[in-house]
Write a structure and sequence with these properties.
Elements (H helix, E strand, L loop, with lengths): L1 E6 L3 H21 L3 E7 L16 E2 L2 H5 L6 E4 L7 H10 L4 E3 L2 H18 L3 E2 L11 H7 L5 E7 L2 H12 L4 H10 L8 H4 L2 H15 L9 E2 L7 H9 L2 E14 L2 E14 L11 E8 L3 E8 L3 H21 L12 E2 L6 E11 L4 H11 L4 E8 L9 E12 H12 L4 E10 L6
Parallel strand pairs: 1-2, 1-4, 2-3, 4-5, 5-6, 8-10, 10-13, 10-17
Antiparallel strand pairs: 7-9, 7-11, 9-10, 11-12, 14-16, 14-17, 15-16
Helix pairs in contact: 1-11, 3-4, 4-9, 6-7
The structure holds NADP nicotinamide-adenine-dinucleotide phosphate (NAP) and L-homoserine.
Cofactor: a metal cation
InterPro entries: ACT-like_dom_sf (IPR045865), ACT_dom (IPR002912), Asp/hSer_DH_NAD-bd (IPR005106), HDH (IPR016204), HDH_cat (IPR001342), HDH_CS (IPR019811), NAD(P)-bd_dom_sf (IPR036291)
Protein name: Homoserine dehydrogenase
Length: 436
Amino acid sequence: MIRVGLLGCGTVGASLVALIDRQNATIQARTGLSLEISRIAVRDVSRARPIGIDSAAFTSDAMAVATDPNIDVVVEVMGGISPARELILAALAAGKPVITANKALLAAHGSELFAAAEAAGVDLLFEASVAGGIPFIRPLRESLLAEPVVRVMGIMNGTTNYILTRMTEGGADYSEALAEAQALGYAEADPTADVEGHDAAAKIAIVASIAFGAEVTSSDVECEGISKVTADDIAFAKRHGFAIKLLAIAERFSDSNGDELSARVNPCLVPNSHPLAAVRDSFNAVFVQGEAVGDLMFYGRGAGGDPTASAVLGDLVDAAVNLQSGAHASLGAFVPMAIRPSDQLAAAWYLSLRVDDRSGVLASIAGVFGEHGVSIDSMEQHSLSGPDDAANEARIDLIIHPALQSDVRATLDALGVLDSVRSIGSTIRVLVEADR
Ligand code: NAP
Ligand code: HSE
């Protein structure tokens, strides 16, 4: 019998309790171990919870659960940094393996927590923290341990992928689609973490740490969310054979000067021919490129109670089996690695401008691109004014060939001061063949 202490019983915790109930006989048959949820810490013990566990098991004293000598393994699914950090450290110090789904915590304090698990000689497992139900962390840390991974690129936030899919396919309004994602249990307690890219940034920081054995925290990740993506951008992308996706990307650059890495989250126009373009709704996918293995893709449900509970339960069984045999998984030490500034990264971009609709304007705009050595790949212009309209405004949408971000930035600055340019709208990266 493995006695489990559960910290948090919300979307993920309640699904985990139900899944253990359903699968315990199978787990026992396959491992000889039976799981029992012995105690549960929640914020509000008075709330009715239809999960079939005696109310005596509930407490608001989470530290008492984390350090209870009768608890064998602790599962942290409460979220947030504090008190989750202190609770996990206390459980590890008491010699208990810990399972967590908390990417925000691992992306901020992973090194400290992994070192504490190593010092205690117990597991700290976190499969559910990245890409929900997709078994990706275990393949990355075990199967791909010796693979020279060059790039990991993924759709790692279910809420934003759901919103973008609904806006693209159903013409839904942004806030309507966000409300649906929240009702389905995909969104974080504060959905700003989803839509502004912070949730995906935490996940790619964890992935970069493991893929490259480097110390990477959320603060190393350049981050832009989807809140500025417009219906016009989505329509442009559709007309030109792209899907707009929020991509989280970790990349390693190796040359004679050593290794550098880049970790970033940004919306991107993904060509429909790329497998990531076909990832819809709350599904996540992680695309790995290794020098030896080539391209790999992992696909599945990235959010929601049941898929996330599946990942937590896999870790829980693993930790229980390890506990019996006195073994534990080890990540090794992370080393510092320089971050390549984004200005030194090359990318293709989609740029949208509002300009005066009169002769000579296009020539002056094209001239600015030329002066900065930025090459235009394709261009589309629509007049926004009627024949008798004095506004004389046009919208110009361009895709540029890959260029250094510093040059793109300088081009946009120079365009911004042209009399004929009324405003610079969306600027979104484009995934091109060279990125694959
Ligand atoms: P949630 O529905 O908000 O549940 C949080 C639970 O933790 C609630 O039961 C809450 O108690 C309890 N709690 C919060 N603070 C507490 C405290 N200080 N002491 C005791 N209990 C406390 O959150 P969730 O969606 O299940 O997410 C949990 C974790 O999983 C987060 O780290 C999240 O990022 C991660 N995750 C979530 C998903 C997903 O799709 N939802 C997917 C992957 C990872 P009350 O019930 O009394 O409020
Ligand atoms: N809020 C997260 C998402 C949950 O939407 O992907 C899974 O980590």
